[in-house]
Design brief:
6 copies of one chain form a homohexamer. By secondary structure, chain A is α+β, with helices and mostly antiparallel strands. Chain A has one domain: GHMP Kinase, N-terminal domain (Ribosomal Protein S5, domain 2, 2-Layer Sandwich). Chain A contains 7 helices and 9 strands, in the order ββββαααβαββαββαα. A 5-stranded mixed β-sheet of chain A has the order 1-2-3-5-4. In chain A, helix 2 crosses helix 4. The longest helix of chain A has 26 residues. The termini of chain A are far apart. The relative contact order of chain A is 0.17. At the A-B interface, strand 3, helix 1 and strand 5 of A face strand 3, helix 1 and strand 5 of B. Strand 9 of chain A pairs antiparallel with strand 9 of chain D. Chains A, B, C, D, E, F: One of its GO terms (biological process) is rRNA 3'-end processing. Chains A, B, C, D, E, F: It catalyses: tRNA(n+1) + phosphate = tRNA(n) + a ribonucleoside 5'-diphosphate. Chains A, B, C, D, E, F: Homohexameric ring arranged as a trimer of dimers. Chains A, B, C, D, E, F: Belongs to the RNase PH family.
């Protein structure tokens, strides 16, 4: 029994609040338990310099936390004048993950900017960001498909989840902040709707892990991703089915 | 008749969603029409270097907009590596305004950090920030009063509003983004519950304004502030009345 | 009787030393009592990106203080690697004020750079900067009028002054550093030669102020602006009269 | 047959040039094929602020490439004034990996600084950095063990290698730059001498990968790590055997 | 005959305007022809970290140019957010030069901050800065001698001058901007009142120079330094003679 | 007799390891005693903005030290986010020195980037950088001469050396770190193969120096430069003789 009463292989309650902010082309507030992230997708009609004239699009992400998303106030990165290594790692991860399920040639010479702003954090902010950003991105791209007549470039569903080995060596799905702080091993998994891996990042700073433990963690992650994608399907409904 | 159907002297609908984020000592989501700002107040048990050993507290504010709070995506200040002049002006204004209604000696050697994060913008973000931040600050300070047994240091209510002269020379209260873009003269007024001025910032970039126009604008602002403080009173209820 | 022997409504001695630096198109050393600011105006034959192709000009200002303009040496902003919020606020104010009396379409696609460098500070540096910068700008623009045959784009005189409420609640015009440090309320007023307001910034960090006090402060400011504009008229002489 | 004539499961020639630079406590030049990295370990007698007084040590890493380590000259990060996201990711990875095989309490209140400077790059610079840095760190720590009489805090061997899926879907060990550029899937694996995982980072930007492919990649990585650790054992010889 | 009518070995008119700014402990406006530099000396009662507890003082310098000190407006270093290599070179040179004629142990644990702000430039700004800063420093130190009763720590006079080889291979003393732009070889020489070298920096970007040419340039520099030190002696008068 | 057993006028052992790094157009590892610098020359087919369309080339240099090139670890300039004044001075010096022996018009609209990375420091890193960078540059330019058929633009040999006055007033050639730390006077001299001066930088922070001492130092420097250029000639061999 976990500290919040969940089963080992149970997700926290997930909600997707679509069209949360009015200006972006796609906007979702994702809540995974007490973790809440505003995911906005913006479409820009040009690509970064390294892609100009290639006839392909690009997807890039930025991630940030409000200073009091956390229990102790953290200093604003704009005040420090630089973005931390942790933030850079996360935004690079979100961008790579989303690009894996979009046909960038079908997208055309456009950039999709993903902004993930964590307004309340309780563990799993990077995986919640990917799962929510996917939904915001699909909404934004659907508008493009409709208004510009391009072929739907999204090729699959996509979600992310954390798994880990707790302080008593128990296997855990979707760790909250307390569990994450206590964990011996922490792994983030990004998978598609067809069950393929996109990213796998496992780290055992407090402890190493065996091949067998890895296999058990991956089983747990596959279960969690499957549940998340069902929630995405329900939220996106007709939208994604008609466009795919 | 204004573009959103309001009277010249009518505020947009205002709502105060208390305890919006769970971690901060005080947290409010303020909505003024389509402008939405998360206002968080954090208490830190020390003061900046220039105040150490003076037996007085400090209140400081930071302000930021999500990139897609606006119609066009704006670049994140953390990515640019510096805070804009506009942001600095606003956060200095919020801090000064709040300090005017708090007895810093009663507060003791503590800093109150105010974070105003605009998640959706439609004009008047700085005045909404002050009006919302006041409420978040009172909630945070009330907890201090209760837990530390200090005497209530908040000395008055405080709210802020914009007034302006529109493109057809009409006087306007609480300008939305469209009205603000078209305005000839724009003025931000911060006042207390007892009807005193705290800050007055009027600017006529497109046009100058006469002493008589100034007087009419101030009449309008007084009316708006009065309405806002009534909303604050209702939201804070017992909290402020019992602590004052 | 004030600490330097002035009447409440009396300006400090003002001098305008024209053509102080040889390179700029317009250059003035303004002294207001012990406050001394070098105001240089430079003309550049292009506009910032947001104005390109609009057929309009732009006026922008930078403000700085020498490290020992003040009683205690302050750290150079170039050494700190960033410009303070106070500096940004002031340079934005100077730019807005000057743009209010110039017809930017008559100016054509040119930028006027105003540099206000305070070499000695004794209160009122931002208002002295505006009053002096106006004169430097007129000199620079007059050369343009002569050499390029454009129509004189300067539409009015412009000056700025501070007023305030002192520690004994006395109303004061043109506060020096000591008076400014002691003041309960501080207000900066920018007005045109025809008596219209351009900017009004009043702040009561130590105290709030009533509508009646505001009115008395504005009366005082109008008197001071009138005196300053007379000094500008004398200094500019034929220059402005023939070109207007 | 691979472009450089290797078998699919064959490492590039590896050499470890010990004591390469004279000043550091530990120094190694590691060559993995044409990739060459100077790995220096420095010992500092204090820890970062977050660990002070905890009685534990710390290990941190910095990574950099000379501008012409690469085929095209890259801009120096000191000239740009900021460290890229890629660099931050790599230096965080190196630090975490090394900390996993050191008992930080035995190390005592000391920091080991690892500097990995790539002087020539041909793929696999982050894994070569970890493998070489481990050796430099052991040399530095051995000196501490000898001079300070602490118990040997290094608990296991440690090496890292890349595996991937090539453009023709072939599985590859230790990809060079050309193979890495062409790869569909790229994975970096850090393991200990006892065959446990420390870090696992797999990414399929061009393609996703199945659970079965993951298993084949991990088999390949285990083989490569085993070979690397044998090379480390030979290089460290008595040093590590007598101190463990 | 030179472009401004001087002899080859003739200085431009030099003036030293003592006590130019009221706040600093020492302040001089030096004019060398059209080059004008405000030199301020400030005394701080502590030393930088690397000297704490050594019982010695320190002298450090900062140098800056107003944007319109030059013919074309240059961007402010505070706006660019960093100090240029040229500025750093010059401020390091000024600091070293002044330290060479001060007994830092007699100075005691104090820092003298030298600020050289060029308000108008016409060549030779770094040498004018040194010559003027020496005078400002002596004034500031004299006050220390008087108020703190320390023994006079200034050990000698100090001045600096430029020499060069012009476009027609003529030898020139004290080059103005035009001459400096045309010069084949440019050399800055800092010397003491007793004729010893403190700094010698010669550079021949457009041309190299022979040992014989070097000797002729040094003869010229010695003559110029001698003239400058006579001017310093006259300006400082009793001050330096009674304190030495 | 010097601390490392050399004569006063004797260089440390010098070696030039050509083609040290495989990617750059020119690459040399220069060792001067225990000082080791990797000098890479890169050719870029465009020039900086200020030279565009002038039909001339440019040579620019960057200099850096690995953190443990020194006895105590120094902080990486990329981590500090800015390049130090010392680094800037050195890289400006290297660039100027190399430009003095290249006909930039013959070079054509190309930039040669010189990167000098000190991997081990024991005094004289800036002079070793110039001497080594010259060789790397000649190798790179020779390839241009061959592949593009331009006329050889290198006009002379070039080397640099330090001379100084030691703590016992002895004259010293090629100071190592210990000698440099103890020296009263330190001078860096850059000369051509035909015995002309390119740069001369002498500084006496601890002591001043007379005209006669200067002459003795220059004699010593000429001897050292002569020896260095003989070593360059041997290393470059046919390369430079056939191309000149």
């Amino acid at each position: 029994m976990r500290i919040d009463g969940r089963e080992a292989n149970q997700l926290r309650p997930v909600s997707l609040d679509l069209h949360f902010i009015k200006h972006p082309e796609g906007s979702v507030l994702i809540s995974c338990g007490e973790t809440k992230v505003i995911c906005n997708a913006s479409i820009e009609d040009r690509v970064p310099p390294f892609l100009r004239g290639e006839g392909k699009g690009w997807i890039t992400a930025e991630y940030s936390m409000l200073p009091r998303a956390t229990n102790e106030r953290t200093i604003r990165e704009s005040s420090k004048g630089k973005v931390s290594g942790r933030t850079m790692e996360i935004q690079r991860l979100i961008g790579r993950a989303l690009r894996s399920v979009v046909d960038l040639e079908l997208l055309g010479e456009r950039t999709i900017w993903i902004d993930c702003d964590v307004i309340q954090a309780d563990g799993g902010t990077r995986t919640a960001s990917i799962t929510g950003a996917y939904v915001a991105m699909v909404i934004a791209i659907s508008k493009l498909v409709e208004s510009k007549g391009i072929k739907m470039p999204v090729t699959d569903y996509l979600a992310a989840i954390s798994v880990g080995i707790g302080k008593n060596s128990e296997l855990l799905l979707d760790l909250n902040y307390q569990e994450d702080s206590d964990a011996q091993v922490d792994m983030n998994v990004v998978m598609t709707g067809t069950g393929k891996f996109v990213e796998l990042q496992g780290t055992g700073e407090e402890a190493t892990f065996s091949r067998q433990e890895l296999n058990s963690l991956l089983d747990l992650a596959e279960k969690g991703i499957h549940d998340l994608i069902n929630i995405q399907k329900k939220a996106l409904g007709e939208l994604i089915s008609e466009t795919k």
